[in-house]
Amino acid sequence: MIKSFFTDRYTALDVETQIGDRVLFTMQQVHGSHVSVVDKNSLHVSIKTDALISCEHGVALCVVVADCNPILCWDEHLGVIAAVHAGRIGSYEGILQKTLMRMQKEFICKPWNIHVSIGPSIRSCCYEVGNEVIHGFEEFTHDKDGKIYLDLLKLNLKQAKDAGVLEKNIAYSPVCTHCDANYFSYRREKTTKRFCGVIYQ
């Protein structure tokens, strides 16, 4: 059985090497759109990537964030799991869609069997951006009081649907990390601390 969860700022979690008897894979997240496939024999700490996929039992995948979108994906039928770090640049480069398509191509996952869960992140109510960074993505913005706000949740939801994931298999947290002090927010407090999303089987 595949299990997934998102922590908050008060949840203590040892993300150094393992969860139970599972090897824990973390990422050296670089705000890109590279997707890596891992197994038990892969280097399991700080892989330079922004998405991890695995089909092995005994493997746990972790994404850490403090405003970016932490996304967990899985195919229960085939036992394929993924953890995705979707910041602005990664989202613009289609990292979620690339991950879902890699699951389909490499592991023969059927899109209607894939589930996607998007955790707490900064939302369009608080994600103010400059006009210089929205070219080509204007449909995911809105204006308020003469300022531009970006909706990365909407963009990633579209990527999931474009990759064939059924709407009933897509879930997302209602939490804006900038609004809710239960979560770390770089925009709010310039913190280096992170909360995380974890998935394993």
The CATH class is: Alpha Beta
Estimate percent helicity.
10-25%
- Kindly provide the radius of gyration, computed on alpha-carbon positions and rounded to a whole number of angstroms: 16 Å
Catalogue the unreliable spans: none
Quote the beta fraction. Answer: 25-35%
Number of strands: 14
Number of helices: 4
Which structural category do the helix and sheet elements fall into? alpha+beta
Number of domains: 1
Mean pLDDT reading = 94
Report what the structure shows.
This protein is of the alpha+beta class. The protein is 16% helix and 31% strand. It has a single domain (3-122, 153-200), classed as 4-Layer Sandwich (CNF1/YfiH-like putative cysteine hydrolases). The strands form three sheets. Strands 4-5-8-7-9-13 form a six-stranded mixed β-sheet. It has a five-stranded mixed β-sheet with strand order 1-14-6-3-2, with no helix packed on it. The protein is globular.
Could you list some keywords that capture this structure?
201 residues; 6-stranded mixed β-sheet; 16% helix; single chain; 4 helices; 5-stranded mixed β-sheet; globular
List the helices and strands and how they pair.
Blueprint: E1 3-6, E2 18-19, E3 22-25, E4 35-37, E5 51-54, E6 59-65, E7 69-75, E8 80-86, H1 88-92, H2 95-107, E9 114-118, E10 128-129, E11 141-144, E12 147-150, H3 152-162, E13 170-172, H4 186-189, E14 195-200
Parallel strand pairs: 3-6, 4-5, 9-13
Antiparallel strand pairs: 1-14, 2-3, 5-8, 6-14, 7-8, 7-9, 10-12, 11-12
